[in-house]
Specification:
- This protein is mainly beta.
- The chain has four helices and 29 strands.
- Strands 16-17-18-19-23 form a five-stranded mixed β-sheet. Strands 3-2-1-29 form a four-stranded antiparallel β-sheet, with no helix packed on it.
- A hairpin with a 2-residue loop joins β9 and β10.
Length: about 400
Amino acid sequence: METGLDLSQLTKEVLLSTDIFGQFWNVCIWDYNTGTNLHTYKSTSTISHGLAFLRDDYMLCAIHNKPYILYWNLKGKSQQAKINTPGFISCISVSSCGNYIAFGVEEKCFIYQSHSGKLVSIINRHLQNLTCIKFSTNDSFLITASEDTTILVWDFAEILTVENEYINPIHTWNNHSMRINDLFVSPTSSRVISASSDQTCKFWNLDTDKTLSTHTILLKSVPNRCILDNLESNMYVGLVDGSIYCIPIKSIMNEANKMVDDSIDESSFIGHKQKINCLAISLDDLTLASGSEDTSIRIWDTLSRQCVKILKHNGPVTNIEFRPRTFFFNEEPFNSPPLFSRYMTDKNFDTPISVLSKRQVNRLGLEEFLGNSSQDFCHEEYFELKSKYDCTRKINEKIYNYAIEKILNSS
């Protein structure tokens, strides 16, 4: 039976990239073997931790210094739409099932149903701005990290069914002493890795009640990104000095605390001149891609640790991902329901979509899930209280910085 599908395409991957300037494109798709620019999505710039995919239907980008999300449909004719948000986004994530979108605005985590646009919950337990949000592979957990040095793990089913004031994190991991720069959640195990400005990477386990990390790696510079390969046999860490370390997992598992010394340079990837902003590894684990503040993407052979290709950008690279070529180059008709459809004033994809922020979050019934509930309202009281809260938070931050300065000077 003829299917008309080239099965060889299923094994091929392309590389996606974004940069902070967005002068020529918002998202660029590369053939990383030849360095050819295959396709671009033009608009504005995307923040770090600001690229997400809703299954293979939509690509979402959180825009730098703008209170909205841009998204494109990946099937049929590509069209762009906008989702307005309550503020500037610092990070974004989409559940594996594709039904929920979570993003950080300052210290709050907003969770919306993706297709109805219903506000499900606002998590407000962190003290400073969020830096990273991740869903576990099976969507059982939502993990949030912040500048306040804390990582909180939430039971996602509880978030969907319990009122905000009664929700508590099931794990509070606060062994770091400085801001959390990155989180990596294993797609095949319960392992979570965090990278912090305190020059450590820590391993955590979602299945245990322990609040302490299982393993700690001390580095000679601040780690900004961390990932595992698909076999979880090697860990790649991108540092602010531009170097990338490859650390075998076996060497980490043998000791609770490991210090990475100069001997690791034999297993490092040297070439970038400035901070590593993003890392990605191909499905076969043979190709590593790294994006840096030095406006370049380097393609590495993981076996020889040699740079085989350099892709230049016009600004610091913020996100890179390997994705199947069929995500973007296919002839499938676009049959997916639109995002945030309850708040569309026009079914044209070019029409902006408004997200309504509420002070009190009502739980969802069947009617609300289907988008037939009565109209939501933005309370003026919310914005008044938010203004007062922001003012108080800035005062507390000044008091905190003053106290720290006094403590350090006295010591």
